[in-house]
Amino acid sequence: MAEKAQSLSNHGRIDPLFHLFIVPAFGITWVIAIVDVFRHPSIWTGWTAVFMSAAVVAVFKIRLYALRVQDRVIRLEERLRLSGILADPLRSRIGELTEGQLIGLRFASDKELSTLVQKTLDEKLSTADVKKAITVWRADDWRV
User: Fold this and answer.
1) Which residues lie closer than 8 Å to 76 by C-beta, 6 or more apart?
2) Among 2, 5, 58, 112, which is 20 to 30 Å from 119 by CA?
3) Cβ distance 144 to 116 under 8 Å?
4) What's the rounded Cα separation, in Å, for the pair 86 and 115?
5) Where residue 120 falls among pLDDT bands split at 50, 70, 90?
6) Is 8 within 8 Å of 131 (Cβ atoms)?
7) C-alpha span between 83 and 109 (Å, rounded)
8) Rounded distance, CA 66 to CA 13, Å?
9) 6-15, 55-64, 65-74, 122-131: lowest mean pLDDT where?
10) Statement: residue 38 has pLDDT above 80
11) What are phi and psi of 120, to 5 degrees?
12) What Cα–Cα distance (Å) separates residue 44 from each residue in 6, 19, 29, 47, 49?
């Protein structure tokens, strides 16, 4: 069965192992550990609650690190793409684009990229506004 074409309405990605297994498992275990501290106070239950708190923080920090690296790669990739596609007046303004704008522009087709970059710079569009302004969506299936 063919996958549905990516668009603004469906470009978000859920990683089933992370979002539907790891996060609930750690979250539920953390809540149980906190409840256990109040029901059966001891050094052991206290330490378990502290350890589970650290584990929950670690799970989210690990995810955030991966997303941050992904954003840096996207920024580099889009700057390279823009320098190859944009004409000289706009090419010199690539540095003015914010990380969020570059992240939004990655979904724009090559055909509309110049016009959209000009609009993004002139109107200082947010990431969401850049994505909404795209008419021909360029799928990004390599996201974390």
Assistant:
1) none
2) 5
3) no
4) 10
5) very high
6) yes
7) 15
8) 14
9) 6-15
10) yes
11) -60, -45
12) 49, 29, 15, 5, 9
Report, as an integer, the average pLDDT of 110-126.
96
Residue 9 clears pLDDT 60, i.e. is over it = yes
Q: Which amino acid is at 38?
A: F
Contact residues for 56 (Cβ-Cβ < 8 A; gap 6+): 26, 27, 30
Are the beta carbons of 48 and 36 closer than 8 angstroms? Answer: yes
* Residue 135 burial (C-beta neighbours within 10 Å; 0-12, 13-18, 19+): exposed
Question: Please, are residues 71 and 103 in contact by the beta-carbon 8 Å criterion?
Answer: yes
Domains of the chain, residue spans: 14-73, 86-138
Residues in a beta bridge with 108 = 137
Instruction: Tell me the one-letter amino acid at 63.
Output: R
